[in-house]
Design brief:
Elements (H helix, E strand, L loop, with lengths): L27 H20 L18 H20 L16 H4 L5 H24 L6 E4 L3 E4 H27 L5
Antiparallel strand pairs: 1-2
Helix pairs in contact: 1-4, 1-5, 2-4, 2-5
Protein name: DinB family protein
Pfam families: MST (PF04978)
Organism: Streptomyces durmitorensis
Length: about 180
């Protein structure tokens, strides 16, 4: 690093890292749920110990920030699990039709905004977890205006991909904030 800051590890004890506990055999539903849980835990880890710094932007003119990622992923969870699969007629929490990037643009370093983002993200993840475990099977379907008919299986795979991509962004954002890196 050119800033002279010492690189800090976000996590050094691999023996206690629950993200490594994903099942490698067994029922598909549980394996997919484990992979999604590991990706969610990675996002939390990348944000650990930060408050106002969560809203720091990557590079102008981008509005990408860790807080924006939390808000965005809350809306992504809500969209796929509540709206598409459960058929609930609920609005997104942060983005709107007229301002689809408000999840990132509205990610400001105010304690109430930060707390609301985490509360929303946790609530949407909890709803998704219940939905996945209570679904009769992974072949249940929902309709999405963009993708058409999708199954719960496809949504779980899509969510793992979504988190993995954004956790890559989170890696870079966190390293820029304080030099911390992780497994």
């Amino acid at each position: 690093m050119t800033s002279g800051r010492r690189r800090a590890a976000l996590f050094v004890d691999e023996e206690r890292d629950s993200r490594l506990d994903a099942r490698t055999t067994g029922e598909e539903r549980h394996m997919l749920a484990d992979f999604l849980a590991a990706q969610r835990a990675t996002l939390e880890l990348k944000c650990a110990g930060l408050e106002a710094e969560l809203a720091l932007r990557s590079v102008e003119p981008s509005t990408l920030s860790l807080l924006g990622l939390v808000r965005h992923l809350a809306d992504v969870e809500r969209r796929w699990f509540r709206r598409v699969l459960a058929g609930q007629d609920v609005p997104l929490l942060f983005g709107t039709d007229t301002h689809p990037d408000h999840d990132f643009d509205g990610a400001v370093p105010e304690p109430a905004v930060i707390a609301a983002a985490w509360e929303a993200w946790r609530a949407e993840a909890a709803f998704a977890d219940r939905f996945v475990m209570e679904a009769p099977d992974l072949d249940i379907e929902g309709h999405d205006g963009w993708r058409g008919t999708v199954s719960l299986r496809w949504v779980l795979i899509q969510m793992v991909e979504e988190y993995a991509r954004h956790n890559g962004h989170a890696d870079l954002l966190r390293e820029r904030i304080d030099g911390a890196i992780g497994v």
